[in-house]
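Researcher: I'm preparing a figure for a lab meeting and need a structural model of a single chain. I don't have an experimental structure, so a prediction will have to do for now. The sequence is pasted below. Please return the structure as tokens so I can convert it later.
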Amino acid sequence: MTGVKLKCPAPGCGAETDELPEATLAMEMLKLHVSLVHGCASKPEKPKRPALTMTGDVVEYGTWAAFKHQFTTYKSLANISGQAVNHLLECLAPEVYKVLFDTFGESLSQMTENKLIENLEHLIVQKRNSLISVLDMMSLKQDSGQKVLSFLAQLKAKARVCNFSKACECGRKVDYTDEMVLCRLVCPVCTIKSFRKKCLRRKN
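Model: Understood. Here is the structure written out token by token.
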């Protein structure tokens, strides 16, 4: 049985596959050659630029914290070093940009990245109140049919801005966020008498 050899279709290449018993196998080898040698492999997608939008006339603190993390990640993926003021401005929704421009005018283009972030936080990010944040977290209720992991994610997002930490006598800062999240997660369950009895029979 005669084998199959295929030539590369790229102009001036002249490469060809080894003699193979099946045409499909020869075709796969040719495709591999074209991809590796002639750069026809699919290019990686550009990183997606994050967007900062407002809820009403403010940006919620949790949204702001998530945006800053996304922007840092975006800069790393896009290989952006140094100041990235223009990139940051491109991330702003029209209503956010308008607040900034109305306040600072053309001087926006002379700001450093850190100064721009500072001004954004001052102008549009909802101010935090630790007590209100704690009350918001403790009042969260799991919706009917909501999965535990989804509710847990909600609790952690709220707890993250509650500043559940205390300074120890040794000078170290002790964070008890996870304990508060667990307490709120199991609180409704602990109202069930049978569950309370089981818990009281065991040590921590």
